[in-house]
Design goal:
Elements lengths: L1 E6 L9 E5 L2 E5 L2 H18 L9 E10 L6 H9 L10 H12 L10 E11 L3 E8 L2 H7 L4
Parallel strand pairs: 4-5
Antiparallel strand pairs: 1-6, 2-3, 4-6
Length: about 150
C-alpha cells in the first residue's frame, strides 16, 4: 500500500482555456490546476521513494479535507469538525479526483485507467489536504467482494 498526504487546499481540475496565437487557437491548462498537479506529483514521487509506477489493477481511497469557513459560528465549526456538518460546496469531488489522478499518471501508477475500486470522502478539517491510499487489487479479491458475479 502507498499512502501519502497532498498538502494544501484541494483543487478541482480546471477546464482547458483557449487563447489566440496569431491565426491559431492554443489550449492550455489553467495555472491553478498546473500548480496543484505539480504538488500532487511531488507528493507521489516522495511516497514512491524511487519505486517504479504500480502496474495492474488498483484501489484508490481518498479523503478530501477542506478548510472550515472562518465566517461560520463556533457551533457550526464544531459541527464541521465532528462530522455532522458535511461539505456540499465546491470543489466537486469528481474534479478533485480528476486533478489528482492525472497528476499521479506515470508517478504512482502507469495510468489512471488502472483504478478498478475507489472510495472517496469529502470532509472538513483544521488542516486541509487530501489523504491518498493506493493498494493493488488481485482478480480473486474482485470475485470475492462482488459475490462471484
Amino acid at each position: 500500500m502507498i499512502e501519502f498526504v497532498i498538502p494544501g487546499v484541494p483543487q478541482g481540475k480546471g477546464r482547458p482555456r483557449a487563447a489566440m496565437r496569431g491565426k491559431h487557437i492554443r489550449l492550455y491548462t489553467p495555472e491553478k490546476t498546473a500548480t496543484y498537479e505539480s504538488t500532487v506529483s511531488l507528493a507521489g514521487y516522495k511516497a514512491m521513494a524511487g519505486r517504479a509506477p504500480i502496474e495492474g489493477p488498483v484501489m484508490a481511497m481518498l479523503t478530501i479535507k477542506l478548510p472550515i469557513p472562518a465566517s461560520w459560528s463556533k457551533r457550526k465549526q464544531a459541527a464541521a469538525l465532528a462530522g455532522t456538518e458535511l461539505p456540499t460546496k465546491k470543489p466537486d469531488a469528481d474534479n478533485v479526483i480528476k486533478a489528482i489522478f492525472d497528476a499521479m499518471n506515470g508517478v504512482v501508477w502507469v495510468d489512471d485507467t488502472q483504478v478498478v475500486d475507489m472510495v472517496v470522502r469529502k470532509r472538513y478539517a483544521l488542516v486541509p489536504g487530501v489523504v491518498v491510499r493506493i493498494s493493488t487489487v488481485q482478480a480473486q479479491d474482485l470475485l470475492t467482494s462482488s459475490g462471484g458475479a
